[in-house]
Amino acid sequence: MRAPTTIEMSANSPAGPAAAAARALELSVVIPTFKEALNVEPLLAKLAAALTGVTWQAIFVDDDSPDGTAAVVKRVAATDPRVMCLHRVGRRGLAGAVIEGVMASAAPFVAVVDGDMQHDETLLPEMLGLLKADRADLVVGSRYLATGAADASALGQTREAGSRLANWLGRKVLHAEVTDPMSGFFMMRRELIEAVAPKLSTSGFKVLFDIMASQPTPPRYVELPYQFRARVAGESKLDNGVVVQYLGLLIAKLSLDLISPRFLMFALVGASGVVVHLTILRSLLAHGFAAAQLTAALGAMTSNYLINNAVTYRDKRKRGLSLLTGYLKFVVLCSVPLAANVAVATMVYERGPAWWVAGVAGAVVAAVWNYVTTSRAVW
Ligand SMILES: Nc1nc2c(ncn2[C@@H]2O[C@H](COP(=O)(O)OP(=O)(O)O)[C@@H](O)[C@H]2O)c(=O)[nH]1
Ligand SMILES: [Mg+2]
Q: 106 alpha carbon to ligand 1 midpoint, in Å?
């Protein structure tokens, strides 16, 4: 009897990570993580159990979690070649993490699965089967198909309502009857993501929606129901900033990418700055107009800077000393268009239209200047 080759051995035995790696890679499971240290090993055990017979790898993309998630992944990766860690520093953002994980893959198929075990990994073989049989380009795990209704305790009532509204809007933009376009759980042919990667927004949570909306021709998709599980360890990172970002992404897609979500956010924050400005101006008028105006302008710039840092540039959020140096640059850059703002507004005003048209014209010029310069020099 001849000795079995490595290939035969790995095909026969589901175990042995080294043996599994000898076969051509079929599937990369991309797992974005932020503060999921306790979930890494249980998740890997679940993946290994679900994916027997498949040649898979797990690509964790961790944004330098303070709880040492990357260290846990690397400890496992040291002895298991199926596991790797993309350890990003100085960056935050779920969408960007997913895109980078996919770009690091060499497998024909990629899945995206959260690191907190809220997704049902036992669906992965069926998803892979549909793709391999070419029955779909994309398979989405849906929390909303009849039998897969999200566990109310897992999502929470407000989130559940918000999520349904977001889905409804998403369907309108996509012109597709997908029940869960915001799902973080899906599998597709890698090349579909690669082809549109330069167009994708790296901030926010809605990467599947963005991938679908960016395809030149609508992908053939299949949805599979699953039960969204409650989180065991760690906490959710989805907050209101994420919801605002999503609205920005929707408007960008509705404008056929003419208006970038970031510019839109920046302009909205600018509008909130006008309110701050007028409030301060009014309360300080007694101290003389010039002084009140100057204080109001500084107050508005400060609040604009802090809100932009927390929301518009969430993924590049500044802290500590760089928060301060960024602030100084922001104030200097935003002071320049004050003159341009007044000049443009006066010019328009003198040509006759209503005072508010002139005011808006000045503000638009200033907003574009502020956005272009600060996005390059500050964040
Ligand atoms: N790399 C990376 N992963 C993130 C970030 N924010 C969230 N995640 C991960 O994305 C997944 C979904 O996040 P989660 O907070 O559970 O969202 P929820 O399930 O909608 O509440 C989890 O695996 C998180 O660890 C981030 O900024 N960077
Ligand atoms: Mg979660």
A: 23
Residue 321 phi/psi, 5-degree rounding, is: -65, -40
For ligand 1, is residue 30 a contact (CB within 6 Å)?
Answer: no
| Closest protein CA for atom 12 of ligand 1 | 114
Please count the CA atoms within 13 angstroms of the CA of 265 that sit on its side-chain side: 25
pLDDT, tens digit, for every residue of 212-258?
988 888 889 999 999 888 887 888 876 666 676 777 777 777 777 77
| pLDDT tens, residue by residue, 54-108 | 999 999 999 999 999 999 999 999 999 999 999 999 888 899 999 999 999 999 9
Reduce the DSSP state of residue 199 to 3 states and report it: helix
pLDDT digits (tens, 9 = 90+) for 117-130: 999 999 999 999 99
Structure token digits, residue 50:
């679900």
Give me the architecture of the 6-238 domain, per CATH: Alpha-Beta Complex (3.90)
Which residues are found with C-beta within 5 Å of the ion, ligand 2? 114, 116, 118
Closest listed ligand to the CA of 33? 1
Q: Are 271 and 367 in contact (CB under 8 A)?
A: no
Report the nearest-CA residue for atom 14 of ligand 1: 236
Boundaries of every domain in the chain: 6-238, 261-377
Atom of ligand 1 nearest to the CA of 93: 27
